[in-house]
Fold this sequence. Notes:
- By secondary structure, this protein is α+β, with helices and mostly antiparallel strands.
- The chain folds into 2 domains: 160 residues, Glutaredoxin, CATH 3.40.30.10; 56 residues, Antioxidant, Horf6, Chain A, domain 2 (2-Layer Sandwich), CATH 3.30.1020.10.
- The protein is 34% helix and 21% strand.
- The protein has 7 helices and 10 strands.
- The protein is globular, with a radius of gyration of 20 Å.
Amino acid sequence: xxxxxxxxxxxxxxxxxxxxxxxxxxxxxxxxxxxxxxxxxxxxxxxxxxxxxxxxxxxxxxxxxxxxxxxxxxxxxxxxxxxxxxxxxxxxxxxxxxxxxxxxxxxxxxxxxxxxxxxxxxxxxxxxxxxxxxxxxxxxxxxxxxxxxxxxxxxxxxxxxxxxxxxxxxxxxxxxxxxxxxxxxxxxxxxxxxxxxxxxxxxxxxxxxxxxxxxxxxxxxxxxxxxxxxxxxxxxxx
Length: 238
């Protein structure tokens, strides 16, 4: 029995897997994930506990950036191993009492999942016993409009997330999908993108000769320009 429970704790979906399904109570009512988000991107993320300082700074930042994520057809869903009334009280405290880095009167309107029994946390491998066996680590799952997990990022309890990077990842994923490209290290909209590798040197040479907008450093490494305006027009909601 103990071995089975441990296996459940460490169960974790992989990139490219369908997002594990669940129904849950949240601060915004019941949700059925990922079915309720069909046709949209979503970011499902966990935090260790309500009424903790790092988590408070993160929720204020997520809430302040929510419109930016929504513009990219992306919804936010939070989770911790706390009850609904704890969630509500904590979010009320954030709005009424906390001012941080110029953020104040911050209202969190995206759903925060109640997960007292750790059902969702275990499905998503958010419990890391060597870190803490009663709190979720700071996990982030990007789920695309078809319900497929596209990116997974994990942080320990002590480390607050980099929200510029969380937003950049979403922009890069959508840009890659829309334009059939890959994005290089530290890519930002307006930077050159990676053209998919050719199947052979001969094919690469033909492509180099026929594509004036493409620059090849070698047969396996070709880039092209992709204007920033074109990126935003292709991924932002109309």
